[in-house]
Amino acid sequence: MRVIDIDPKLLLQSAEATKRAAQEGFRHVGYEIEGDVEKILTTLAPEGPYGFTVRQEMLPDGALKMQVQTRFEEIAEEYQITRDMCDVLSHTPLIDVRGSWYLFQEAVNTGRQRGGERVNTNQTLVLLPVASGGGITGEIFWYRVPPEVLGRGPTPPDAPTEPLAVRMRNIAQHDRYLEALAAADVEGMARLMNDSVQLGVRDFVNETGTLTRPQDRSTYGLYWGAFFDRYEVRSVDVIERVIQEWYVFCELRLTLRRRDSGKLVAFHTAEFFIPAKDGSFIAQIGHGTDEAVLETTH
């Protein structure tokens, strides 16, 4: 009796891609714990472009600043600085999403400053996109901070505090984002963002292969305006989604029509969104696959 009649070749291909991406990601994490910078660098894809978000800075007024690194040399320098400062003692994933081209984890990390004795514990997010030829092309990183430090001004008096209510607010906010994205509604997307939103996602407008760098709501809107000038959105499909109090993670498949050539194309994105104290998103960070041509006629 056939009950779940899935093509066995499709299942095998999916499993193999997922296993490979997970193995590359876990190899990188293992070398981070070992602390040998030369070994860590062997986990990078042989060639760039790369996309690393290495530090987040919360300013006293609640604004956010984030660094993006794209060159092997600066990434190597950053790893050396970090490992000279502290040791990673453990990395325990609590959420473990193994995509066909990435590894995403919400984890508990323990670490210790070099020369110190106190062990620090942090909740972190890490997204490790994997190149087809092996190695990671980026390390998209975030560590959890209290929501009250994210965003300018006081916390709204009606802001939910009960964990389930916060998660329900976050999914409603992300649903509105998906609706605006599917409708190519730049103003609608921008309204969901904090005024100091940091956008570090794959740059499909300039085709750099690395990450965008808009650092406020105005430049956020400029990027998406240029995106919709380049593409007509045909469909936005959710592949994976995780809704937590302090982030939303989502893998999307976007099917689009290129306005310059008429080609029907598709790519996947994997991104996480960080809510500020007022529920707006103050960071949207992630990566995406190469554009794949589905058909070439109008």
Characterization of this structure:
With about 300 residues, the protein is an alpha+beta fold. The chain is about 30% helix and about 40% strand. It is globular. The model has no long low-confidence stretch (mean pLDDT about 95).
How do the strands of the widest beta sheet line up side by side?
2-1-6-5-4-3
CATH class: Alpha Beta
Q: Which spans have pLDDT < 50 for at least 5 consecutive residues?
A: none
Mean pLDDT: 94
Order of helices and strands: HHEEHEEEEHHEHEEEEE
Major beta sheet, specifics? 6 strands, mixed
How much of the sequence lies in strands comes to 35-45%
Give the topology, please.
Elements: H1 8-34, H2 37-41, E1 51-58, E2 64-69, H3 72-85, E3 86-98, E4 102-113, E5 119-129, E6 138-143, H4 163-182, H5 186-191, E7 193-200, H6 217-230, E8 231-243, E9 248-258, E10 264-275, E11 281-288, E12 292-295
Parallel strand pairs: 1-6, 7-11
Antiparallel strand pairs: 1-2, 3-4, 4-5, 5-6, 8-9, 9-10, 10-11, 10-12
Please outline what is shown here.
With 298 residues, the chain is α+β, with helices and mostly antiparallel strands. The protein has six helices and twelve strands. Strand 9 and strand 10 form a beta hairpin.
